[in-house]
Amino acid sequence: MTAAIASRLGGIRWTHPRTVGIFGILLGATAFWLALPPLAARTAVLPIAIGILAVAAGIWTYARDERRVGGGAVAAGLLGIAFGVLATRSSSAHLDQVVVWSALGAATLRYATPLIYAAIGGLFCERSGVINVALEGMLLTGAFFGIWGAIWAQSWAGSAAWLVGVGAAALAGMVLATVHAIWSIHLKVDQIISGFALNFLALGITGYLFVDKYGDTGTPGDVPGIPDVHIHFLQNWYFIGPIIGQLNLMIWLSFVLLVGTYIFVFRTPYGLRLRSVGEHPRAADTVGISVYKIRYIAVISSGGIAAMGGAYLSIGFVHSFNENMTSGTGFIGLAALIFGKWRPFPTWGATLLFGFSSALADRLPSAYGNQWGTLFQALPYLLTLIAVAGVIGRSIGPAASGRPYDKQ
Amino acid sequence: MSDELKGEDALAPPSPEIPQPSQQFPSRFGGLKGAIGPLLTTILAFLMGGLVVLFTGKDPIKVYKAIFNGTGLNWFFHVGSHSARIPFGTAHMWFPWDTASIAAQNLQQTLLLTTPIILTALAVAFAFRCGMFNIGGQGQYLAGTIFAVWIGSSFNGMSPWLHVILCLVVGTLAGAVLAGIAGFLKATVGAHEVISTIMLNWIAIWVGSYLFGQGGPLQGSQKSIPISNDIVEGAKLPVFWGLKLLQGLSIGIFIALAILIVYWIIINRTTLGYEVRAVGFNPEAARYGGISVARNYFLAMAISGAFAGLAGAVDITGWEYRIGQNDILVNQIGFIGLAAALLGRNTAVGVGFASLLFGALINGTSGRQLDPSVFRPDLANNLTTIIQGLVILFVGLNLGGFWVWLKRKRRT
């Protein structure tokens, strides 16, 4: 084991521009980290000095044609300086209140989970060549029917009613996705128009049913929620314990889903068919793959998966439902998918990053009594815009996405 | 030249080898025939909305009637009760003179709502004519409102007309800049405008929510509520019908109508419009004909954003006068404009009528207008959203083309 690590380390060329660039990115992160608890350096010199080092490393790398890493290091250095100086200027009491790493970690996972369900749902759909901007609507549908199913089943299923809820959510999401599938595959309507129409339909239908059923009192307070998984021996471990010692079942499921998706899409013949239909449907058709069938399956399962994320939101996380409660979560999921370049693990990384920014946006205003933390809500969209613009490696989707396929 | 649009094929419109869905049935016909499709779409959407109402145990006809009465469009039916003496007898006046009635007040609200919908719909329509889908009308509208509030609530004591015009111009520019980012990205690196405008929408929403939120830089002097200051008297558009205190109708509606005409002129009678349409029909052919595709992408997007930004500025100077943090998250005008543009088939006349339809629908289902004993307004709000979704869903189906195709088939 150690020998293997040593040989890996020996293989690294320490003066290679790429290595220096990555080192620069780490330095930039350090510049910020030093100013935060538990170290909480109180002088602004430290983050500035380290940040400048990071920027220098970035420029050096950039000049040697490793533009992506170099640019990343410059950005990390500048951000490290900015946030580091900001952090040293705010009082440590506030910082302690916000930056409790374990609590932030747990909150990040909680916020990232609906995103990962939405993003993986979107991944199946878009990998098959159908654009899915209806993820928001699918999440919302899942959130409503999840809680509706759980309440409905409460009398006869008891504490297992959440299972019915998740099932109802997945089913409702699949129904919604079926409309998208018929519209975009058979009727060949513009997929973006159809997706947006479904967003409005989902918003209207869930809102209508919510007002009709629970309008006066809101959803009942004793909804049977999705249980947490307690791992007792982990709970006292330093740092890790508070983060993953007590996670919701759906979060663990999302990890399984993530790995399963990776294996399915990139390591099985079915995944190869899925991707080929999204990249070059004509070629796939020529070798006998049914483009329509694969697209139907992909779009409908995408609805089911995204809706499960919605069910987590309503009966796993906040334990209630409100009109338009997702308010953009599905679009952050879509953003994560684009940011992660339609690949499972990078997408997961993006959801964690975006979840972290949501967690910060949630904690900062309460600590500072000021709204500037709200700006962190915009960070995922800004980062995705930058990614789409191609400043840090352009993201380009599957070649055939958005194009209806005509059988010949 | 071909290099600058290299990455575009990721999400580009279908290439020529793939037949477009609209080629199945005839889709482009002018005049009255063009209205068949949208009419069928609307009827279908309202029928399905009625089914939803029926499903929850209410009488859809009564509900729609109550909504119609809330729109104020019944004002036009107050006819014949007025007579005027003319030489050799009396004449029954068709024109309803009763300008202070409830119906008149309702109609003022409907037209107030129609104003920004026309403008945001034009934003979508203009980009559409260039082959782009501007989903970002919402964000551009918000940019317009934010800047209009900012300009309108500062510079106290400026000469009134100048102040209003400054508000409108700056709001328009704000929308143009926001959309211009998306257009620039499309023109230079080929970033798909749908993705970039969705992202810009949410950036605008959260930045706005920060600006007017608790402790935000544009929060008003009343520090307990997250609402901006009112714009000063001089920055308000004149109200020409109804009372200013009761949200009377401002001259914003004339601005919107004028822009409708401007849109028609730009699209049909200028070189810019010709180039924009050429790029929209076929970018490759346009490029071959010597038209700069990149320049037109950028210009079309910026102009499109200018319309949406103007919508926000007109709303602020016309009747809203302030924004709350909550309004920013709840507001849907940009998206309603999207539905209106699709329903109006991106033509000036169509957009006008479709916007009136949606303005009336939204006003008729609002808590202020709808009789709660007939139907709960909060249910009706959601009914509006459902109908809006159904309209967008069915409008893509080209029902009009299907209709004509069916009739021709029967004849042969």
List the helices and strands and how they pair.
The complex is a heterodimer of chains A (408) and B (412).
Chain A: H1 2-11, H2 17-33, H3 45-63, H4 67-89, H5 92-98, H6 101-127, H7 135-157, H8 161-186, H9 191-214, E1 228-230, H10 240-244, E2 246-248, H11 249-267, H12 269-279, H13 281-286, H14 291-318, H15 329-339, H16 344-368, H17 379-389
Antiparallel strand pairs in A: 1-2
Helix pairs in contact in A: 2-3, 2-4, 3-4, 5-16, 6-7, 6-11, 6-14, 6-15, 6-16, 7-8, 7-9, 7-14, 7-15, 8-9, 8-14, 11-12, 15-16, 15-17
Chain B: H1 36-55, H2 60-71, E1 82-86, E2 89-93, H3 102-129, H4 137-153, H5 160-188, H6 193-211, E3 239-241, E4 249-250, H7 252-269, H8 271-281, H9 283-288, H10 293-320, H11 325-330, H12 333-343, H13 348-364, H14 377-395, H15 399-411
Antiparallel strand pairs in B: 1-2, 3-4
